[in-house]
Every structure is written in structure tokens, then in C-alpha cells.
């Protein structure tokens, strides 16, 4: 009997973490499909105060208050990519990727935060990185902002300042000028939803009020950068500019109309709070209705969600040249009674209950479960909602706590998420152009420090050399990059 239970237990583990090759999509990805890997400046570079770089909000929040990081670690050295970028590019070259998604550290380029003073050493670092990539035929996919706001600008109000869009557009102009001849894909702001959801780490921020002001500022800042590119650089540089949005797939907890609507509501709040304005000019209808309704009951004389003027609508609408999305996991969504009215609360504004299934394989991060079919459903939803956009999957990946080289689960995760991507392209007509694994190598995972390892390469954080060693998943991904095929042999 015991043996029987053990069999069931093992079978369940195998089911959730291993890929059955016979069930994988066996059609080749198109020749022009781009495979890549991603990182971000703060999480890998280190050298936080070297060669003229000044303090960012991340340096302030994570490196000066180790207590907010689970393992008490910090990112002052991280992977030391500031000194070891050639080793990073060597791994990318061996993987055979087409592109590398990385971010620029604002305070490495503009130490005052403003565009009045350019730090040559910082510029040189990114020029060298881009040159090294190009020598190896790897396209840079450049993120202008990935969480590390100049502390000087935070001190002047950060995202809540009406000047934020102007600061960001000026910084973006400098980036386009300096690097744009070599960049075809620009990502203005990475995961704006998370940026606003975590902004309270860096200064005073009222949830449910500042959350939406922040969203509007980020949308306006993105649009301002897009307009700068469009007017001043597009003709010559011929690149494309998008925001990198993120979110889960929201699966209704049951077939009931209430749960289906609840899941759709959450999709609209998470994806739609940025994508809807980018594609339609305005907030999703359900966001407008729910926040206005709750604001009124809370005693506000107008909605906590800022109403967009026609001018703002025209300015923001149509400023996403492609749909960049970071996606990792799925959650189940259940309808609930209207949450109690008290002080403003952005979760109560959505007004649903979310959970994940216990039998979904868990990573070392509680939110990240292995649910590859969510990718296909999400891609279809984005296609239907936003006029069949060209989609670039800018991040997708799996974390473990060990950094083990035999990282079968990560390999299977990549395999199955890519297989679902291929199904969506092939059977559902979704236009997916590119896919990047998060991450090239283990790095500093925010409050999880070095306890959550996402890399296709292991980094020895105990060694001053920060030695990189490729994991098994990287050899599988190399095969995919080279053959465009997920299985042993693909149909042509
Ligand atoms: C989203 C973020 O862009 C990145 O900074 C983070 O490390 C990964 N996802 C994994 O959580």
C-alpha cells in the first residue's frame, strides 16, 4: 500500500515538472523568430558607486537596509557585470542567442538624474557592452528604466512629480542619441505595474491613490519618450519602442459567470491598466467603474482614478510599437462579495480572490508556479484584446533555491512554455516574434536576495571572481536557439 502511495506521489511530481516530448509542439519556429536572454542593471552590474555612478532608489532601499532582503545580502557587487560583461557576452555567444535584453542604469549615465551632465565612464561601459554584443552578432534589446530611479529625482517626488515624464523623456533622448544607431528594440519602462505597486519602498506613497497617479505618470513618461523617438530618431534609426508589461494569466476558478467575470476584471486591472491606454487611449471601463464606485462610497468627491483628458488620450494612444510582455505564472480567480469600504486599497479596487493550486509545482518563490498552459491562454487574450499585436516575450523563467547545474525543472519549464507559445502561433494565429529567458545567470532577486536563482548559468557569489558556470538548461536552450526546434527532430 505504501508503495502505491509513493508511486502516486512520484507520478504527480513527474507530471508537474517534466515535459513529455511527444506532447511538445514539433514545428520549427520561423527563421526570423528571435531567441534571447535577459537581465537588468541593478541585478547584475554591481559597481554601484564606481566611475561617477550615483545612488539610485535601489541602492538606497536594498543595499543600505539589508534587513529588507531575506538573506541580508545586497547588490553592491552582484554578478560584477560592470567588470565581467565580456564573460556574459561569451555565454550569450555560446548559447547562440539572437538578442540580449539588458537595462541601462540611469545614474550611471546621468549622475544628477537630469540630462545636464553625462558621465562618460558610464556611457563607455554600455558602448563597450553593445560593441561586444555586435561583434558576436547579438542584438541589444535595451530597457531604459528597470526599477533604479535616481535617488535625487525620488527626493523631488519621483513618479508622483508632474515633472517625471519630462525627466524620463530627457533621459531617453540621451539614450537614443548615444546608443540608438545600434538598437532596434527599445523598452522604455520595465513592468510599470510592479513599479507602482512597490513604489512605497522608496518614499511616501498612498496605496489606491498614488498607485493610479503613478500609473498615469509612467504612461505619460513612456509616451513622451516614444514621441521623442518618433520625431527625432525613428527615420534614421528605424527602431521600435514599447513598454514591457507583465502579469499572470488569470484562470477563472470555475465555469460560473461570476468567476469568469472576476478573472476578466483582474486581467483588465493588471494588464489593462497599462495596455488599454496604450492601445485605446483610456483606462479599461471596469477600472473606471469600480474605482469611481468605491471612491464615492469612501467619501471622495471624485474618483481616485485620474480622468484622462482628450489631449492625454491622444498623446498616449498608439505609442506601443510592439507588445512586450513578461510572463511567469498563472493564478486562479474567484468572485467574492464586495470588499468592505474603508481606506483606499488597490487590491480591494479589483475586488476578487486569487489563489494557486497546491498541486502546481512550486519554485523557490511562492508566487511562481509551473503552469505552461497559461502562456497560450494569455497570448490568445492579448491577441483578442489588443488588435493582434506583434508580441515579444521579454521575460519568462524559473527559480530554484540551489542554483544546481542539473536544473531539469528549468529546462522543462522553458520547453513547455515555448511549446505553448508555438501552439499559440501555429494554431491560434498569435503573432509572437521573440522570446527571452529570465535570466542569463543567477542574480540579485530583489527582496529574495540570492536565495532565488533564475539563471541558465550559475554564479558563484562566494568567489570574488563571480565565476559563471553553465547549467544543463542552457545547453537545451542553445539547441533551441540553433535549431529553432523544441524536440529531437522537428517537422519543417
Ligand atoms: C520581473 C523583473 O523584471 C525582474 O527584475 C525579476 O527579477 C524577474 N521578473 C523575476 O522575478
Structure description:
With 492 residues, the protein is of the alpha/beta class. Helix content is 43%, strand content 13%. The protein has helices at residues 2-17, 41-44, 57-63, 81-95, 106-109, 120-135, 151-154, 164-179, 192-197, 210-237, 257-270, 272-280, 285-297, 310-316, 346-350, 373-385, 408-428, 472-483, and strands spanning 34-38, 99-103, 139-145, 185-190, 240-246, 249-252, 323-326, 330-335, 352-355, 391-395, 432-438, 457-459, 468-470. The strands form three sheets. It has an eight-stranded parallel β-barrel with strand order 1-2-3-4-5-7-10-11, surrounded by four helices. A three-stranded mixed sheet has the order 6-8-9. β12 and β13 form a beta hairpin. The N and C termini lie far apart (48 Å). Residues 1-16 have low confidence and may be disordered. 1-deoxynojirimycin (NOJ) binds at residues 40, 43, 190-191, 326, 395, 438, 445, 454.
Concise structural overview:
This protein is α/β, with parallel strands linked by helices and 492 residues long. The protein has helices at residues 2-17, 41-44, 57-63, 81-95, 106-109, 120-135, 151-154, 164-179, 192-197, 210-237, 257-270, 272-280, 285-297, 310-316, 346-350, 373-385, 408-428, 472-483, and strands at residues 34-38, 99-103, 139-145, 185-190, 240-246, 249-252, 323-326, 330-335, 352-355, 391-395, 432-438, 457-459, 468-470.
Keywords for this entry:
disordered N terminus, globular, TIM Barrel, 8-stranded parallel beta barrel, binds 1-deoxynojirimycin, 492 residues
